[in-house]
Structures are given as C-alpha cells and as structure tokens.
Amino acid sequence: MRRIWGLLLLAATVAGCAIDDSGPIRSVWRPEPPKTTYSDVVYVTDREADASFPGGFATRWGGQPSCGTAETVIPPATGADGKLEYGYVAKAHPTVCATAKGKLGGAIALIEAQAAARHCRSVFVFVHGFHTGFDGAVLRAAQIAKDAQTACAVAAFSWSAEINIDRYVSDIEHSDYAQPLLEEFLRELSESGLRVTLLGHSLGGRLSLMTLSAMNQSRQPPRPGFISELVLAAPDIGAEAKNNDFLKLMAGAVPLAKRTTVYVSSYDSVLEISRREHGGVPRLGSSKDISFTPSAEDREVDIIDASNAAADRLDHSYYAMSPETLKDMTLVLNGVSLKTRALGSEGWKPTIQCGTSPCKPRLSGEDERMPRFVTRFILHVLPVIPLVR
C-alpha cells in the first residue's frame, strides 16, 4: 500500500492533538458574562451502537440507521476565569427511526417538534468529514447552529468515520456506504415542507453533493430547490481541469439547491494530503480559482476564498473555528446575498471582499497571514518527498 514518508512525520507532529471535528469543541464567541449553551441535536447515523463510546455510537459501520436526540453542552470561547472548557454530549436519547410516515419518520418527527417549539419552520443539517466521532458530529452541529445563529431545529447526519488519521481511505469507503441513508433523510426532509439548510464539511461535502446529484437524476427527484442554502466547507472533491468531478456533480445537484456557497483555502493541508492520496488530483476545497455558472438564472454558486481565516493546526476546520467564516456563514444561512455581504449593512460590516471585477470573493479580515509550520511543511516540503511502497 502506498504511503508518504511525510505523512509519518505529520502523524508524529500532531500526535495527541485534534485536527478535525472529533477534537475539543467550543464556541468561537466570548459573550459577557460567559454563558454555556445547552441544546438538543436530532441525529441520524449508520454507526453501530456502543455505550463505551462518547455519545453511545462506535466508529464501526452498523449497516442500519439509528435515530434520536443528543443533549449537547457547548461552552463559550473562554470561561469566567479565562479557563478553556470543551463541549460534551450529556446524554443521547434513541428513538425508533421507521414510522408509518417513512423509514426515518421518527427523526423527522423530532425535527418538526423542535421547530414547532421554537415557532419556526426550518432545519439546519450538518454532515461531518473524516476523522470524526459521533460526539464530534453532534457537538459541531450544535456549535455551528449557535455561532451562526440558525435559531431553529438542528440535525446531524453522522456516517461511520473513524477517529484515526491513518484511516482516510477507510473513511472514504464508509462515506460511500452512507449515501443511501443520507438520500432517504434528505428526501423525507423535502417532503416535510421545512426550509432546509445543509452544511457538508470535507468528505461530508463530497457525500452531500454526490447524494443531491444522484437524487436529481433518480426516477422520482424531490421538489426543485428544497435546499434553501447548501454550504460546502473545505470539500474533498476532485477538481481536475480535464476531468472535473465537482463541475459534473454540481450540474446534477444545482436544481435541488437554490444557492450553493463553497468555502476554499489554499492553506488546507489536509486536502494536500488528500490530493496526493488521489494521485495528484486537485481538491475543490483548495481550488480558489474554480468557478461554476448555473444554467438556470434562479440558481447561484459562489466560491469564497477563506485562506486567511484562522483555523486548527492543519487549516482544515476554519469553517467552524474562524469568527470571519462564521460571520459570513451566518448571513449565508439566512439568505443574505453576496452583494449585500460585500457592501455591509446597518449594524454589521462587510463579511467578504471582492478585490477584482468580476468579483472573486474572499473573507474580510487580515490581508495576509502566515500559515502554521505544519501547514507550510505539508504544502511546500511534502510535495517533493517521493511516494514509497
């Protein structure tokens, strides 16, 4: 099996630290006084149930759906004494998935009840990436829902990713196994009449886009535009010039999503590793010069350069760890246009900058930042280290 010498050094460098959603999670905001957020996240997962794992689900593929609600605890960025605290799942409450209304009718009923209790008719759905446990998935869904002020029902779709940096290929395989279940979940959400916003990160972005594309080409496609806002953050999707998977998948999915926002970063070192694992094929999440123009005038696809956003050690989780990204995502999930986000409005500053004409949007903030050492190593040294068997 092909391996990279540099990847071994990377594993040693980041040993014991969190590089993705499975790691410590807390809000990016510092309210005064500091306040912890307690919220319920509806979950649908294909993981095998195992009480010895945080949240009650293992990293193993279960082959059948499980549904329920997870009680999450998300602390602020810093506590009252300046101490750092991290989120956790207090308890999970399983429920029966299948009902007379559908194979995932139990989960849909929980979402509808949560929306009704908050006097709203929408749901924010999060699909995580690789190297993520069940608890990381529901906690990240809760954190983004809070920090991006989604304000209504919150759900997490958790496929059987493993919490092991050396199991990337296995994670790709398990994400593929999850596609039929995600398709059923999204189909039943489309039939519910709720406003749906969907965020897919890394391999979760790949899974989300390929699922929507397949749904649109199925015998009975869901209603057009049932996804109000589709957000792909650091998507791990092939974007090779002569064989561009993203352009083909996006063309298939665009009828189902009114607007798609793609956050990319040229400093994303996880996607550099993915590029090498895929035989040198560039990844969408690090391709800031790519573009897609929908054929329908009522559809929009925006590529946002988030290279200067603060992030984790490997610059892959900026979508949830950067205040700049979350400020823009708050507006995106609430349907604010690209033009308005570039101009700003009463009470808030612009969250993106254009720079050129036509607009090539990038997040507002510092003009340039120095990538971390690990990122610089992976981006500049790793490419010249040969692959070995």
Span from first to last CA?
Answer: 6 Å
Low-confidence runs of at least 5 consecutive residues:
1-6, 12-22, 384-389
The Cα radius of gyration reads 20 Å
Helix count from the secondary structure assignment: 12
Count of the domains: 1
Q: In which order are the strands of the major sheet placed?
A: 4-3-2-6-5-7-8-9-10
Question: Which structural category fits the helices and strands?
Answer: alpha/beta
Write the element-wise H/E pattern from the N-terminal end onward: EHEEEHEHEHHEHEHEHEHHHEEHE
What is the percent of helical residues? 25-40%
Shape: globular
What number is the mean pLDDT?
Answer: 89
Largest sheet: 9 strands, mixed
As a percent range, the share of strand residues is 15-25%
What's the total count of β strands?
13
Relevant terms:
389 residues; alpha/beta; nine-stranded mixed beta sheet; two-stranded antiparallel ribbon; 12 helices; globular; disordered N terminus; disordered C terminus; DUF900_hydrolase; AB_hydrolase_fold; signal; Esterase/lipase superfamily enzyme
Summarize this entry quickly.
This protein is of the alpha/beta class and 389 residues long. It has 12 helices and 13 strands.
How would you sum up this structure, described in words?
- With 389 residues, the protein is α/β, with parallel strands linked by helices.
- It has one domain (3-388).
- 31% of the residues lie in helices and 22% in strands.
- It is built from twelve helices and 13 strands.
- The protein has helices at residues 5-13, 105-117, 134-147, 168-177, 179-192, 203-216, 245-253, 269-277, 318-321, 323-333, 338-343, 373-381; strands at residues 3-4, 37-49, 57-74, 88-95, 122-127, 153-158, 195-201, 227-233, 257-264, 300-305, 352-353, 362-363, 387-388.
- The chain has a nine-stranded mixed sheet with strand order 4-3-2-6-5-7-8-9-10, with helices on both faces. The chain has a two-stranded antiparallel ribbon with strand order 1-13. Strands 11-12 form a two-stranded antiparallel sheet.
- Helix 3 links the parallel strand 5 (122-127) and strand 6 (153-158).
- Helix 5 (179-192) packs across helix 6 and helix 6 packs across helix 7 (245-253).
- The termini are close together.
- Residues 1-6, 12-22 and 384-389 have low confidence and may be disordered.
